[in-house]
Every structure is written in structure tokens, then in C-alpha cells.
Design a protein that fits this description.
This protein has about 160 residues and is mainly beta. It has one domain. It is about 15% helix and about 45% strand. It is built from two helices and eight strands. A four-stranded antiparallel beta sheet has the order 1-2-3-4, with no helix packed on it. It has a four-stranded antiparallel beta sheet with strand order 5-6-7-8, with no helix packed on it.
Length: about 160
């Protein structure tokens, strides 16, 4: 029990150290849950910034799976950046955040739609024993960027 309390205290302390947090909205006086707003810059396609809203429950063993994501072009997107990304159907995880001490995490996955020349960012929660059907999707078209091709290659 003592070990579990230490893990909870450490989790609460580390959640306050998140330098990507840009907002915090309380869900009421009688709840320990808040909506946290964070920003994420894609580590490869640095011209894309995503804002993620997720419910967090301080002093709880599990945060809800609810999240929302919105991504926009906030800088240059080059052909060299697009050449570096995973172009498989499942894409790649660009962000991961623990949502509980019981192996639950929120992930943001980047998937490239070559036919429409669009980056898709999917926010979802996973658990080692079962997944979650709750998810959110945002897209960033390459139209108007240096990475846009007049005759896109079939992916």
C-alpha cells in the first residue's frame, strides 16, 4: 500500500512538471478531474503543432480515455521532412503519455495519406489488456507547402 501511495504522489508531482501544458480547466469543485490542454510539435514534421485536450484525474488510479486533438501547420513543411516519416498504413507513434499506473497510455500516431497528400494525427488510448474505442482525428493537408507534389505518388 505504501508503495502505491508513493507512486501516486510521484505521478502527481511529475504531472505538474509537464512543460507542454498550455491550459487547465477544472470540471468542478466536487471532482478531482480536470481537462488538461497540451501542445505537441511533431518531432520530424516540425511545421505541425497539435493541441490535445484530455481529462486527467489527480489522485486517481486511472484517467479517463477521453481526448480531443487538433493539428495545424504552424511552420514550414518540406519534402525532406515527409521523406523521413513512416509511410506504412499504421504510421508511427509521435507522442505517448501515461494515463495510469496500470499500463494505460494515450498515444498520438501520425499516418500519411499519400493519395490526398495529408498528414493524419490520431489520438487514442491503449491498455495492455484491452484497447479503447475512444479516439480523435485531425488532419494537416500538404497543399500550399513545399512538400506538396503536383503528381502525388501512389502510396
Amino acid at each position: 500500500m505504501k508503495k502505491a501511495l508513493c507512486l501516486i504522489a510521484l505521478s502527481v508531482m511529475l504531472s505538474g512538471c509537464d512543460n507542454s501544458e498550455v491550459g487547465d480547466v477544472s470540471l468542478g469543485m466536487f471532482t478531482m478531474k480536470d481537462i488538461k490542454l497540451n501542445h505537441l510539435v511533431d518531432p520530424i514534421v516540425t511545421g505541425v503543432t497539435c493541441h490535445v485536450a484530455s481529462v486527467e484525474a489527480d489522485l486517481s488510479f486511472a484517467d479517463p480515455s477521453d481526448s480531443a486533438i487538433s493539428c495545424r501547420q504552424t511552420g514550414e513543411i518540406t519534402p525532406e521532412m515527409i521523406a523521413q516519416i513512416d509511410k506504412s498504413d499504421s504510421g508511427e507513434v509521435v507522442f505517448r503519455k501515461s494515463k495510469s499506473i496500470f499500463f494505460k497510455s494515450m498515444k498520438i500516431r501520425r499516418i500519411y495519406d499519400a493519395k490526398n497528400q495529408t498528414l493524419m494525427y490520431l489520438s487514442y488510448s491503449t491498455k495492455e489488456t484491452s484497447g479503447s474505442f475512444k479516439h480523435s482525428l485531425s488532419t494537416v493537408p500538404l497543399w500550399g507547402t513545399k512538400a506538396y507534389q503536383l503528381s502525388p505518388q501512389k502510396g
